[in-house]
Design a protein that fits this description.
Blueprint (H helix, E strand, L loop, with lengths): L2 E6 L5 H11 L6 E7 L5 E7 L2 H10 L6 E7 L14 E3 L3 E9 L2 H10 L10 H13 L4 H9 L4 E9 L2 E10 L4 E4 L4 E4 L11 E4 L5 E5 L2 E5 L10 E3 L15 H7 L1 H9 L3 E2 L2 E2 L9 H7 L2 E6 L1 H17 L4 E5 H4 L10 E7 L5 H13 L4 E6 L5 H5 L2 E4 L12 H20 L4 H22 L2 H8 L7 E6 L4 H15 L2 E6 L16 E6 L5 H12 L4 E7 L10 E6 L7 H4 L1 H15 L17
Parallel strand pairs: 17-18, 17-19, 19-20, 20-21, 22-23, 22-24, 24-25, 25-26
Antiparallel strand pairs: 1-4, 1-10, 2-3, 2-4, 5-6, 6-7, 7-8, 8-12, 9-10, 9-11, 11-14, 12-13, 15-16
Helix pairs in contact: 3-4, 4-5, 7-13, 7-14, 8-13, 9-13, 9-16, 13-14, 15-19, 16-19
The chain binds 2-deoxy-2-amino glucitol-6-phosphate.
Length: 612
C-alpha cells in the first residue's frame, strides 16, 4: 500500500525522504517518487518504476535537493504502475502532492477541471487534487486555505502531503481515513504514513485524527479539525523503539541491538538540543551550570566498552575545551594514589550502573573529598551509580540484553558529545563549536542507518575470519579507541584473539606479527590523520599482511590483492568514532555466528559485573 513521507528542515531532506521510503517498503508498492523545492525555489521531482533503490539510483545520477520535500511509494489503484502515474503529482509546476487512499469522485472533478483548461498527464485520481489546489491558489487562497477548501470537495479516504512553489517553507497535510503522523524534530518536522518511516529522525509524534489538516513548518505545527477549528493533538513518545525484550525478526539480541542504534541515538538526543545550544536539563542534578563553569580538570573512570567510550571522550574534551582530561580503568584507579586536582569533575561511565570496580572507584573519590562534582553517564535509571553520583547524564538506549555492548557504547559517545557542548557553554567558549556538535548529532541516526547498509557485505567478509586465530585492529587519533572496541567485540563473542594498536605504534613491535595469515582491520575515515594512516597500511601490505579497511568513500584507498576496502559513507569528523563502530560490531557478530558461539551469552562473561 502507498506510503507517504515529508520533511521540512534546515538540512537537506532528500536522504531523509529516501530513508523514510525504504522504511515503508514493507507496505508493498510498485513505484516511488520524491519532490523538493530546490535552491532556485523551483518544484522539482524524480520518479521511478520499481524499487526505492531505482529511485535512489536515478537521484544519484540526477540529484535534486532542498529543505522541504515530499515522497511516496505507490501501490497502483487508478492507472497502471508506470513512471507517469507515480507520485508526486504536480499542477503547473506550482503544487506538488502525494496521496494515499482513493478520491472516489475523481472522474467528475477531472471532467470539470479539463473544461477549465487543466491538462492531465496521468490516469490517477491524485492528479485531480493537485489541480484543485492549484486552482484555489490561483483564486487567492494561501496553501492552508486551499487545502481546507479542496477537502470540502472530495469524497473518499485519503491522506495527503503537499508542497507549493508559492510557500516554500510550509508542508500541508490532511488525513481522512488513511493514517498520517507528524514527527517532531528540533527546528525540523516530518510527516509519514507511520512512525517507522521517521524513527531515524525523531521519536516524538502527533497522530492526526480523521478530518485533520495541518500546517507543518520548521518551528511550528498548526492543526485544524474537521470543522476547521484550531485544535491541539497530544504529543506521544514512541515506544516502537521500545527495545522490548523479544527478538522480533532478529536471530540474536546483539544483532537487534546493533540495528536499534539509530533509534537509541535519536532517543538519547531527544529534547536535549535546542536552537541556542544543548539544554542544561540534559544533566540531572544541582547547580550544574555553575559548577561546570568552575571545572579545571576531568577524570573519567570506567571498565571495558564503557572505558573505550571514555577514551574517545578524552579526545573530544581536550580538542574542544581547554580542560585537561585523564582516564583510567576503574580496577586500576581504585587501588592507587592520585594527587589531588583542583576543581576536578569526575565522570563514571557505565551501561549497567552496577559495575563493582566503577562503584568502588567513585566511593574512593568521595571519601577523599577530591572532586568538585561526580557525574555518571549511565543507561539504567535508579542504578547504584546514578544514586551515588551528584549528577547523571542518562543514555536512552533501552535495555541491552546481549552481553557484548553495542547500542550502550554509541549512546555513551553521544552523551559525551552533549557533555562537551555543555562544558563549552558553561565556560563561555566558542558557541560555533556547540552548533557544529549539534548539527552533527542531528545527522547521526541517518548516518548510522547508512553504515548498517554494509551488513550484507560484512557477512560475506566474515567468512574470511572463520579459520583465524588472531587479528589486529588499527586506528589513529580518536579512532584508536574504536580499534580497541572492535578488538574487544571480536574476542568477546568469537573467541578469536584480537589486539588493537594505534597505527603509528605498529613499527615499534607488533609489525613482527604480520604475515599472510594475520588479518588486520583498520578504520580509515577521511580526517587529518588519513595520509599518516595510509603510510602505516603500506608498512603492513609490503610485509604480506591481509588488510581489511573500512574507508571513507573519499579516502581514495585503492583495493589490491591483499588490501580489501569497504566503503563507508562520508562522515563529519566529530562523528567518525560513532559511525565507524558499526561495521566493527557487525564484523564480530557475523564471525561469531559462523563460528557457532553463543553470541548473546559468550562463555565466562556477564552483562553486569557486580563483583570485583
Ligand atoms: C562490553 O561488551 C562488555 N560487556 C564489558 O566490557 C562492559 O562494557 C564492562 O563490563 C563495563 O560494564 P558497564 O558499562 O555496565 O559498567
Amino acid at each position: 500500500m502507498c506510503g507517504i513521507v515529508g520533511a521540512v528542515a534546515q538540512r537537506p531532506v532528500t536522504e531523509i525522504l529516501l530513508e523514510g521510503l525504504r522504511r515503508l517498503e514493507y507496505r508493498g508498492y510498485d513505484s516511488a517518487g520524491l519532490a523538493v523545492i530546490d535552491e532556485q525555489g523551483q518544484l522539482v521531482r524524480s520518479r521511478a518504476l520499481g524499487r526505492v533503490a531505482s529511485l535512489q539510483e536515478r537521484l544519484h545520477k540526477e540529484p535534486i535537493e532542498g529543505h522541504i520535500g515530499i515522497a511516496h511509494t505507490r501501490w497502483a489503484t487508478h492507472g497502471v504502475p508506470a513512471e507517469h502515474n507515480a507520485h508526486p503529482h504536480f499542477s503547473n509546476d506550482r503544487v506538488g502532492l502525494v496521496h494515499n487512499g482513493i478520491v472516489e469522485n475523481h472522474a467528475e472533478l477531472r471532467a470539470e477541471l479539463k473544461t477549465q483548461g487543466y491538462v492531465f498527464t496521468s490516469e490517477t485520481d491524485t492528479e485531480v487534487v493537485a489541480h484543485l489546489l492549484s486552482r484555489a491558489l490561483e483564486n487567492g487562497d494561501d496553501l492552508m486555505q486551499a487545502m481546507l477548501n479542496v477537502r470540502s470537495q472530495l469524497i473518499g479516504a485519503y491522506s495527503f502531503a503537499v508542497i507549493a512553489h508559492d510557500d516554500p517553507e510550509t508542508l500541508i497535510v490532511a488525513r481522512q481515513g488513511s493514517p498520517l503522523v507528524i514527527g517532531l524534530g528540533l527546528g525540523e518536522n516530518f510527516v509519514g504514513s507511520d512512525i517507522q518511516a521517521l524513527l531515524p529522525v525523531t521519536s516524538r509524534f502527533i497522530y492526526l485524527e480523521n478530518g485533520d489538516v495541518a500546517r507543518v513548518k520548521r518551528y511550528g505545527i498548526e492543526i485544524f479539525d474537521v470543522n476547521n477549528r484550531p485544535i491541539e493533538r497530544p504529543v506521544k513518545q514512541s515506544n516502537v523503539n521500545s527495545f522490548a525484550s523479544d527478538l522480533g525478526e532478529y536471530r540474536h539480541f546483539m544483532l537487534k541491538e546493533i540495528f536499534e542504534q539509530p533509534s537509541a541515538i535519536a532517543a538519547t538526543l531527544e529534547g536535549r538540543i535546542a536552537a541556542n545550544g544543548i539544554n542544561w536539563g540534559t544533566i540531572k542534578g544541582q547547580q550544574v551550570q555553575e559548577r561546570l563553569a568552575q571545572v579545571e580538570s576531568i577524570q573519567i573512570i570506567a571498565c571495558g566498552t564503557s572505558f573505550h567510550s571514555g577514551l574517545v571522550g578524552r579526545y573530544w574534551i581536550e580538542a574542544l575545551t581547554d580542560i585537561p582530561c585523564q582516564i583510567e580503568v576503574a580496577s586500576e584507579y581504585r587501588y592507587r594514589r592520585q594527587p589531588p586536582r583542583k576543581n576536578q569533575l569526575v565522570i563514571t561511565i557505565s551501561q549497567s550502573g552496577e559495575t563493582a570496580d566503577t562503584l568502588a572507584a567513585l566511593e574512593k573519590i568521595k571519601q577523599e573529598g577530591s572532586c568538585l562534582a561526580s557525574l555518571t553517564i549511565c543507561n539504567v535509571p535508579e542504578s547504584s551509580l546514578t544514586r551515588e553520583s551528584d549528577w547523571s547524564l542518562m543514555t536512552v538506549a533501552g535495555p541491552e540484553i546481549g552481553v557484548a555492548s553495542t547500542k550502550a557504547f554509541t549512546t555513551q559517545l553521544v552523551a559525551l558529545q552533549l557533555l562537551v557542548g555543555l562544558l563549552i557553554q558553561a565556560k563561555g567558549g566558542d558557541i560555533s563549536k556547540v552548533e557544529q556538535l549539534s548539527n552533527g548529532l542531528r545527522q547521526l541516526p541517518l548516518l548510522i542507518e547508512q553504515a548498517l547498509n554494509l551488513n550484507d557485505a560484512i557477512e560475506t567478509l566474515a567468512e574470511r575470519f572463520l579459520e583465524k586465530q588472531h587479528a589486529l585492529f588499527l586506528g589513529r587519533g580518536e579512532m584508536y579507541p574504536i580499534a580497541l572496541e572492535g578488538a574487544l567485540k571480536l574476542k568477546e563473542i568469537s573467541y578469536i584473539h584480537a589486539e588493537a594498536y594505534p597505527a603509528g605504534e605498529l613499527k615499534h613491535g607488533p609489525l613482527a606479527l604480520v604475515d599472510s595469515e594475520m588479518p588486520i582491520i583498520t578504520v580509515a575515515p577521511n580526517t587529518a590523520l588519513l595520509e599518516k594512516l595510509k603510510s602505516n597500511l603500506e608498512e603492513v601490505r609490503s610485509r604480506g599482511g591481509e588488510l581489511y579497511v573500512f574507508a571513507d568513500k573519499e579516502a581514495h584507498i585503492q583495493p589490491f590483492s591483499n588490501l580489501h576496502v569497504l566503503e563507508m559513507p562520508h562522515v563529519p569528523e566529530l562523528l567518525t568514532p560513532i559511525v565507524y563502530t558499526i561495521p566493527l560490531q557487525l564484523l564480530s557478530y557475523h564471525v561469531a555466528v559462523l563460528k557457532g558461539t553463543d553470541v548473546d551469552k559468550p562463555r565466562n562473561l556477564a552483562k553486569s559485573v557486580t563483583v570485583e
